[in-house]
Write a structure and sequence with these properties.
The protein is of the alpha/beta class. The protein is built from 14 helices and twelve strands. It is globular.
């Protein structure tokens, strides 16, 4: 059979299949423990699922309001206000989306014009450059360098051109686990204010921070509320990634752009799940304290195991990912090493070169997820001990 030429549009052709789909399928094929894709192997709290079931039983099964169910918008606004001190209008400043990935796409499509430039920091979440391409814009890359992976104002400033429209920020950062400090956020803010740039801030791991790290929303810095779209979601904080409940918080002029795209992407998000999400956001501070305590224990369990078998571990300040240097094992790049781990060792990880545009970027690194049960993590470490041979 003669292979037919691809009919995939030019804007998507460079990206191919996501690295998460590729390695999740590889893990299934080899019965590997999946520490690659960032989904828990346990359910979220029962009270949230009960609230969604109650909503279904009460007939809340038709289209939701496009911008979000009133109850959920109010909870998001209240939580954002409590965390930041910003007065947020649930109807004017909050848009509920089908996961944060849709919120990112809607933000790019609704606020970026063809020919604009967007500054992305690499490594990046892989949806960012795709969103830029969908908007007909061009990505410019700020490469964060090991071992500190810090943002500097000079490096960011050097990327700004007359075509620059926005800076994409992610803190706590996937895949690095960095929680950017106030000085780094102020560096981003200074460049945005100086050049009248927008800031799109992905903060889905905002509750997963450890030790002395403190998450700060860049929208709280002087002159930043009016130019920032803050993006977050339910899935990471409440272990319900399959529900795909996300949101964007922004001043009304920016919200208008997000909604202009959102209404034609998904229009609305699953109605009963929004009511479950509203119940989730009623959780008190003790829930978040316990969440961080539990994930810190999981982080340390996996980090100690990785260190014991010979990885150079970059201990994360936040998220549920650990980045390691794998070069001690003699593999030429991250993809070949990740395939070896999955097929021969029985543990799946993600090769971070998928999160770089710069050739060779991330080839020395490998990413593990620790959003798994303790027994799963121990079993993975047991398998990884074979690397010492």
């Amino acid at each position: 059979m003669v292979d037919e030429p691809s009919q995939v549009s030019a804007r998507f052709r460079p990206f191919g299949e996501t690295i998460f789909a590729e390695f999740t399928e590889l893990a299934k094929r080899h019965d590997a423990i999946n520490l690659g894709q960032g989904f828990p192997d346990f359910d979220g709290p029962q009270f949230i699922m009960d609230a969604a079931r109650d909503a279904m039983a009460k007939g809340r099964n038709q289209y939701a309001r496009s911008i979000g169910e009133v109850e959920l918008n109010e909870r998001i606004a209240a939580r954002f206000g409590m965390d930041t001190g910003q007065d947020v209008d649930p109807a004017g400043n909050v848009t509920v989306t089908s996961g944060c990935t849709e919120a990112i796409a809607a933000t790019f499509l609704g606020l970026v014009n063809p020919g604009d430039e967007i500054i992305l920091m690499e490594p990046f979440y892989d949806a960012y450059p795709v969103g830029v391409a969908m908007a007909g814009a061009t990505a410019r890359y700020l490469t964060l360098q090991a071992p500190d992976f810090r943002i500097t104002e000079d490096a960011l400033q050097a990327l700004v051109t007359p075509q620059t429209r926005a800076v994409m920020l992610n803190t706590p950062h996937n895949p690095l686990g960095r929680v950017f400090g106030h000085d780094e956020l102020e560096a981003v803010a200074a460049v945005c204010r100086r050049h009248d740039l927008l800031c799109f801030s992905d903060e889905v791991y905002e509750r997963l921070v450890y030790e002395d790290a403190r998450h700060t929303s860049i929208a709280t810095l002087p002159g930043m509320w009016e130019r920032t779209v803050t993006l977050s979601s339910l899935g990471k904080t409440f272990s319900l990634t399959g529900w795909k409940i996300g949101w964007a918080v922004a001043p009304e002029p920016l919200t208008a752009g997000v909604r202009a795209a959102h209404q034609f992407l998904t229009y609305a998000t699953a109605t009963p799940l929004q009511h479950g999400a509203a119940a989730a956001l009623d959780a008190g501070p003790e829930y978040y304290r316990q969440l961080a305590t539990d994930y810190r224990r999981k982080r340390d369990l996996l980090a100690e195991g990785l260190d014991s078998v010979g990885f150079e571990v970059y201990l994360p300040q936040g998220t549920y990912f650990i980045m390691c240097d794998h070069r001690g094992f003699g593999y030429p790049d991250d993809r070949s090493f990740a395939r070896f781990l999955t097929s021969e060792i029985g543990v799946a990880a993600i090769p971070p070169s998928a999160f770089y545009s710069t050739p060779g970027g991330g080839e020395a690194l490998i990413r593990f997820a620790f959003c798994k049960g303790d027994d799963t993590l121990r079993a993975a470490v047991d398998r990884l001990r074979k690397l010492r041979a």
